[in-house]
Specification:
17 helices
Length: 402
């Protein structure tokens, strides 16, 4: 009896220690994320000051929206984190506005970058599919392909429509700029956010970390190199910190995850909110959407059952805590670009989940999936799809139009 009690006591103590470790990891990761956003902003101020004319040509040129879209797609495909790219976009544009770029031009370039980031993040599903392929027969892998690419189709349809409207009429950028005017006139957001940043971020991040590091690097390598190094270093810290945050939150919900996923497939509403909840908690749509792939591969859920879950993941990534802080840290520019991020995903939900058009992404994914699966080497065809959509096309656009 005594041994049993001692064993239970030891389990409780181990669980408590594990929880403390997770909480400390989470707090450290959040601090790194906050510092990385400020570092990106500071680095871009230096870069913009030194290469103002070149950057202005790229950001304000006639092909700027197309370049921004391609840059967003390629960046997200490379780093596997739309959250990191969206956060970097908000802070970069905020830094450039602080350096003299007009708010209108910053938003007109930043909005397409955010559109591109939303497409680039869907590549993670394919990577996960190849990861689980080893445990599947060739037929099972072929059956999984439509579920792997349905998120690609959902995002590409959304971005194709909204980017066409943006190119033709400046639809999304004009809409969020008008909302920015309302934020400023009614809520005086810029002053409110400035007070928040000065009272908290300046004390815990700027003075002890950013400013001393910047001064040291400027003394060693000069302003130009410091600006570039700051952007690279702090962008890597964004990726690292978001990864750590995601892992810590995954640990917290790990014991309940499987039951929640299985319950998600009972009806579309439950699927949507399960996807939303999981992605909100882990702070990554890449993680949220990729978690469903093994269930599709093992036929626990079919494509129609997984679709509401994937839609929920996509809307949640605009509202997780890391993104909300990015909206705030970016000042008025970040707030406006954050609004664009939220609106484009809400419009996607209305178009492809609420409206009668909701069957279109599934049908297209099934059609493309059947064509890919019909080839002798389905895996190679899927790789070519990914390389073409997420790497070749954006690189060509950046090279010839950037």
């Amino acid at each position: 009896m005594g041994e049993t009690n001692n064993s239970k006591q030891a389990q409780i103590e181990n669980l408590t220690i594990e929880k403390i470790k997770v909480v400390l990891t989470l707090l450290f990761s959040v601090y790194c994320f906050v510092a990385s956003l400020e570092g990106i902003k500071s680095g871009f101020k230096l870069i913009f000051a030194q290469w103002q004319s070149n950057i202005l040509n790229m950001v304000t040129g006639e092909t700027a929206p197309i370049t921004g879209l391609a840059l967003g797609m390629l960046s997200t495909a490379l780093v596997q984190s739309s959250s990191a790219v969206v956060a970097a976009t908000m802070m970069s544009m905020s830094g450039m506005v602080a350096g003299g770029l007009s708010l209108e031009k910053a938003v007109q370039f930043g909005v397409p970058m955010i559109l591109g980031a939303n497409v680039g993040t869907s590549i993670t599903n394919t990577i996960v599919a190849f990861g689980v392929e080893r445990g599947m027969t060739e037929e099972e892998f072929r059956d999984t392909i439509p579920g792997v690419i349905v998120d690609d189709v959902y995002e590409i349809l959304t971005i194709s429509l909204l980017f066409t409207l943006e190119l033709a009429f400046g639809f999304l950028s004009k809409l969020v700029l008008k909302m920015g005017d309302i934020y400023q006139r009614v809520l005086n957001v810029e002053d409110l956010l400035a007070r928040f940043e000065t009272s908290i971020i300046d004390i815990i991040v700027e003075r002890p970390i950013i400013d001393p590091l910047k001064e040291a690097l400027v003394g060693l390598v000069g302003i130009k190199v410091t600006g570039i190094l700051f952007f690279i270093i702090w962008f890597l810290v964004i990726i690292y910190s978001l990864n750590m945050i995601s892992k810590a939150l995954e640990r917290i919900i790990d014991l309940q995850w499987e039951d929640q996923v299985k319950a998600a497939f009972k009806n579309p509403v439950r699927g949507f909110f399960t996807g939303f909840t999981i992605t909100f908690l882990v702070g990554s749509s890449s993680i949220g959407t990729s978690l469903i792939i093994p269930f599709i591969a093992t036929k626990v859920v079919d494509l129609k059952g997984a679709y509401p879950y994937l839609v929920g993941c996509n809307i949640a990534t605009t509202m997780d805590l890391s993104q909300i802080y990015g909206y705030i840290a970016g000042g008025l520019t970040g707030f406006i670009l954050g609004t664009a991020h939220i609106l484009l995903n809400i419009m996607a939900v209305i178009l492809w989940f609420v409206s009668p058009l909701r069957f279109i992404p599934i049908k297209i994914a099934e059609a493309i999936g059947s064509r890919i699966a019909g080839n002798k080497n389905a895996g190679l065809s899927l790789v070519l799809w990914i390389i073409g959509i997420f790497f070749v096309v954006p690189i060509l656009v950046i090279v010839f139009m950037g």
